[in-house]
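Protocol step 4 of 6: record predicted structures for both targets in the notebook before any analysis. Target 1:
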Amino acid sequence: MKLKKLSTAALAMTFVLSGCGGSEDDGKNVSSVTGKEKFVVGMECNYAPFNWQSNEQTDTSVAIGGAGYCDGYDVRVARYVAEQLDREIEVKKVSWEGLQPALNSGEIDAVIAGMTADDKRRAGMDFTTPYYESEMVMIVRKSDKKVAKYNDIQQFKGKTVIGQKSTNYDTVIDQIKGVKHATPKATYPEMIVALQKKEVDGITAELPVAEGAVAANKDLTIVHFKKGKGFDIDTSVSIAMKKGTSDSQLFKDVQKAVDNLSKKTRDEWMKEARKAQPKAE
């Protein structure tokens, strides 16, 4: 999953992805329309198929005022958790580096954004058990027939490989001996263009993201690695909540919701998200 490195950078501008207004009631964030307490979730809305922004409303999307909708696998999970909590879902679009500060300040209740619970993040946030697990792969040009047949990351020695900026997808590249580590870019669309222009030879990615990219770009393909020959990295994703809240009733209720979400349903939702994601992603 999205193995990004959080920093203490300043919180980026956020946008409320909910059509309903809210008001404070005895310290609670309550909807002025339904009267229910809100479950406020932060995500980028820019990481398909986990989350993306769209102008089209769907049965799974959340409105962004007058600026469209946020949709995707993470939105589906967020809506499900809110329903289990009997709360109204509200999603806020927050830059990746702004997610932890937003959580710590109380602006959001949880981060559901394809985030992996590594040791560094656990020092600043509490995490549920994973709600999705994936596989680390490489996106390459289909025309590079020899490269397309690689099954060991070390075969990329001497090749130029790129990963997403401020993520473990970038730092993990150094596990390849003799690799030419390209300067990271902020988004996958940017990296795909670089690959198509032959500025790089490969892009690190988790499988759902790679599958979406390949579906939208027929000139690309995916390299899978043999067991023990791939990247040494955790590819599971979990829900993050404010540090020190793991004993709270809210955390326990969120964890219970995750526990009750079957693997079959998780896989079905991801399949549907990959199918529905914008073709440009």
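Target 2:
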Amino acid sequence: MVVRAVGGPCLVTDAGRVGLAGVGVGRSGAADRSSYGLANRLLGNDAGAAALEVVLGGLEVEATGTCWVSVTGAPVEVDRDGRREPTGAVLALRPGQRLRLGTPGSGLRSYLAVRGGFRVAPVLGSASRDTLSALGPAPLAAGDRLAVGPAPGGTMLVDAVPPASYDAVPVLRVVPGPRADWVRDADALVRSAWRVAPESDRVGVRLAGPAFEAAGRGELPSEGALRGAIQIPPDGRPVVFGPDHPVTGGYPVIGVVVDADTDRLAQARPGDEVRFRWA
């Protein structure tokens, strides 16, 4: 498969690097794990097969051999050689045929999987691109060639699944963090409306809204960090750690988004409103 065009960032991703936080390497992996996993299941792929994570569409690829593909996540207009196809369908690409992803009407990240997975040399056990540490393959560019792995043992059981749909204002479950008492009013997290800031990325989702006031406890030593942790930096504006988060952090964690809800947060665009509730 040859990349003919890209729009937003397009990264190779998989299930991530497990068990390396002790040596300073985060897990990384797909930002929306449920959509990534669905794309692979539709094709009968092994769990953890490498796929592509596409931000706001714009990707165009050309098949150099016959292959089966699926697109999940943020619903985009899928064009197969001039024919419109639905997100969530299992599609055959013949040699020379092109697949184009339009801009999603909602959501942020779409996933393109191929039967057999993309064959990419792993780095520390994973083909994922970690944008913080720059581990893994570089972001895709026009002209890149992608090898496809051998057919897996799994079968393709369905032709299509319904496209994803997203609530206009997601309400994410959050549990109190270990340093909730390091701000004067941690409950402001669930009372306030927040918007995704333009500076957000795979490292963390920055939230625009009322600033938290520190409780005056001084400096906090660095502690272990995890996906979904809500840190409060000195400016008082929350940051929710994403898949490429650092393995330690030195700012107070006042809450942690329930792990299952971090996939929904990964689909929030800059400017989208999000809210929280205590789990």
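Step 5 preliminary note on target 2. The radius of gyration is 20 Å. The first helix runs from residue 33 to 42.
Proceed to step 6 after PI sign-off.
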